[in-house]
Design a protein that fits this description.
This protein has 4 helices and 4 strands, in the order βααββααβ. The chain has 90 residues and is an alpha+beta fold. It has a single domain, classed as Alpha-Beta Plaits (2-Layer Sandwich), CATH 3.30.70. The chain has a 4-stranded antiparallel β-sheet with strand order 2-3-1-4. The radius of gyration is 13 Å and the shape is globular. The mean pLDDT is 92.
Length: 90
């Protein structure tokens, strides 16, 4: 299992969150399990999503999916997300 931390700014958190919640089936189909969702304390439209995925290849495929990019644009994501892909070592 691989952990990912994805952070990005959104234009309007409420709009983004509604769309994010509505996209749960797509994440599940790609093997992505959300384990945490956060908003920056000093910048509430900065969102961080922590996930678990089966492999590095699975998250790379998920991120590269053109449907995901279209959904992110539709939901008001500003710029490309910052993505950390982590292997647990302890």
């Amino acid at each position: 299992m691989v952990t990912t931390i994805l952070s990005h700014e959104v234009k309007d958190y409420e709009v983004w969150k509604k769309g994010f919640d509505g996209d749960a089936a797509n994440r599940t189909a790609m093997g992505v399990k959300v384990t945490g969702l956060y908003r920056a304390a000093d910048k509430p439209n900065m969102v961080t999503v922590i996930t678990e995925v089966p492999s590095v290849e699975a998250i790379k495929a998920f991120i590269a999916n053109p449907d995901l990019r279209a959904t992110m644009e539709k939901l008001g994501v500003i710029g490309a997300p910052q993505v950390m892909i982590l292997n647990k070592v302890g």
